[in-house]
Amino acid sequence: MEDETHLDHSESMLEENSLYLPSVTDLDTDVKKTADICVKNNSLLPMIKLELKSKLQLKRHRNGQSLDIDAEPKPEYKMSPSEIQRRNEMKNRNKVAAKKYRDKQRMKKYENEMVLEELTTKNSNLKQLYQEMLSMLMDLKAQENPVVKAEPHP
């Protein structure tokens, strides 16, 4: 009994304080439509948008503001011929600059590859020279000191 009076009291307070609250069936149909769109598009974005819209409406309702939050469409702007020409010139300058940059990057990469190849060759030649010199050193040491059997110290 107490629960019923509490519900009646909260409903009457809601009716007194509200300008317009969508009915539960309106919300259900909106949520169902949005859920269908989410499934169709394989995205949760429509549901998030609906949630944000509902939160904004609730906030506006609590602040006593109008619940209409429909944004006005932006006025369509027509570009003048000089603006169109300027835009096209900028596009062309950008295309040329982008091509120049890509060519420069390509050339830099090619030069780096050539330097790498040259250094790799030089490194392998130096390693080979090192091995030859090492073997010559071993030969010289062998000629200088004949092999003597070393006896362990007592």
Automatic annotation (TrEMBL):
Pfam families: bZIP_2
Keywords: Coiled coil
Region of interest (Disordered), residue spans: 59-80
Domain of life: Eukaryota
Entries under InterPro entries matching the protein: bZIP, bZIP_sf
GO molecular function (one): DNA-binding transcription factor activity
Gene3D superfamilies: 1.20.5.170
Protein name as catalogued: Cyclic AMP-dependent transcription factor ATF-3-like
Domain spans labelled BZIP: 91-104
UniProt feature coiled coil, ranges: 116-143
